[in-house]
Predict the 3D structure of the following.
Amino acid sequence: MERQEIKERVKKVIANVLNTDIAEISDDANFIFDLGADSIQSVQLIAGFEEEFDIDMDEDKAKEVQTVSGAIDFIAGYLD
Amino acid sequence: MTRRFQIHKKNLRNFFYPESIAVVGTNRQKGTVPGDVFINLLKAEFNGVIFPVSPRDTFISGVKTYKYVIDIEDPVDLAVIVFPSSVVHLALEQCGKKGIKAVIVISAGFREVGGVGKEREDLLMEIAEKYEMSVIGPNCLGVINTDSRVRLNASFARSLPHEGNIGFISQSGALCTGVLDYARAHHIGFSKFISFGNKPDVNEIDLLYYLAEDEKTSIILIYLEEISDGRGLMQAAEHVIEKGNKPVLLLKGGRTSEGASAAASHTGSLAGSDRICDAACLQSGIIRCDTIEDMFNIAVAYAYQPVPRTNKVAIITNAGGPGVLATDAVVREGLKIAQFSEETTDILRKSLPATANINNPVDVIGDARADRYKVAMKAVCDDPEVGGLFVILTPQSMTEINEIAQEVINVSSQYDKPLYASFMGEADVGEGIQMLRRNRVPHYFLPESMAKSFVKAYYFNELAKESGTEHVPVEDVDRDKTHQLLNKAIEAKRKHLPEFEAVKVLETYKLPLLPNGLANSADQAAELADEVGYPVVMKVMSEDIVHKYDVEGVELNIRSKEEAGKAYEEIMKRVGQYAPQARIDGIFVTRQIPKGEEIILGIKRDPVFGPVIMFGMGGVYVEVFEDISFGVAPLDGNATEKMMERIKAYPLLKGFRGRKARDLKVLKDTIMRLSQLAVDCPQIKELDINPLILLEEGQGAYIADAKLML
């Protein structure tokens, strides 16, 4: 899958979980610091990514991912 | 003073008297730390501007939010960060860029969780250093300033406590909420209330120096679990007491002696870190408390009432039993039962029923009403012999509890003498107790607590009277030679110096030793014996022999050259039989010390307080009773004397029932020289002088054996 497509789908999940306008999500945005995710939403984001990309992520490592670009890289690793 | 200390000195006021605050990472969710911290500031009616910084919410409780702290156009004096720990560094970096110099990090998840948490905390400190910011926290409750000019509740405590003159500093945030609740129930007010959590930056020492200058604070209470710089804490407390004339009370968690290492020497095994903490408190004037209740009992006595000027106490009671208990407590605490003047007893005789006891403790009898209490209290308080008054009440059917409480309040406000009350019971006396507490009359459930609190308040007054003595270093020592000897041993990778080498080190500090030398032949021993003077004692020196007597390696009372030569041969022969593998350094020859009192002295290095001196009487006193005291080096003359006086057997040294007084002047000088050696030579890990023989007054003292560990 192309990186651009992963990015668009990642942002779609984020916008959906955090109830945010997709245009406001920059590539280097931090889920908590920039987008205001709380602890429940952080877990919802992981579930959302797994569902969107039909992958089963390592939960502990996934929790360490804090930014949009980090999420794209992390998910790309599962799709290679 | 360190660079960080200077930065904090500049920044600390912003924590307590900010004109504007940013709550960074807050949200609308009530009942959560990020949500409540902002609401608490509003609820306390903070006298300044509050900027909520929230990445998601556009407003909270009608107040416009900012996405980032750097978006705020106005200056910000204080930031309170409530973000999760993983992004606190991002918020702190922005605070630095914004020019905020005081930051409270309430968030948890740092050093206390280990691993990545420790790394996060280190990162915060790097950022704080870069922007010259001061940080309170992380992992804390926050900061409260009740000053009506500010009304600051930058914490997640339920509400702003009453305004008062007690400053409270705590390492534990959870304890703080319990303390605040207790204080509210007891009408105890605070000036400043600070929870500082992991304290990697601003710590108790910085806060003590700040509160020393704080006009709203007259007493400082500290709860600590970990002292990071023992000597620094002592100096800060001394500053508060001497310059600020404010008592410092310490409640320290973890009283177990985990610090007692399994060191080979007496000093090492006896010096548990908690005992050293006790000694450090006594030395610096810190009042150490055992429980929170104990701490507040003393705090209200000091904060609400005049400081006792004498230790003579009067007791007024309507019940005999509690009067007896109070009298016992007064005497047990070292206070005195005041002897009334004739004038006082005349007034009491005329005003009280014939069955009343007009002497101290005054028993106004079980049926006493408010008027009887009033006349007795006034008569007693008018007596110049009385330094303070304890009023005890038990609730009989005719006892006018609230009216008596009111009279106690009235008398308390009219006299410049401390007045404490104990209304015994709970249900019936409850309202009266609340009246007393609301009106700043300390109330204690037990008479024993009254006496204990009075004595601590009196102790502080006495301490404050003593002018602080500056430490004057002992100068007539040969530091170069000492370092030369110690460094040579360290270069040779030696861990321990035997007596014949330890004494060389001690000689450079002019510690009391008799002439001595090491012999490696019978002839040499005979010559040395002649030189040092008779009678002579000879001892085998070997790192392989721990107990010289077990191998018959000691000869006493040698009175001639010939005897000395012979003794050398005999010691070597016996040692050869008992310990054939032992490597022998030689035979130590020294003049025999006359009989005297055996004293044990030592140096130990405590991880918290640094070099520590131990003192006690030898033999059974130390072995069975552990009758020893500690002092944190450097010791001035005053601290040395106090340390000597702290052992129970001290009266024996001063002369007791036919026993002549010992040379305490030389003992004091020896301890001070030892203290100087400990400070000057960090190479010395431990030193054991066991025994020092202390002779009668004017005759000196001599070290009979010494071991030195490197």
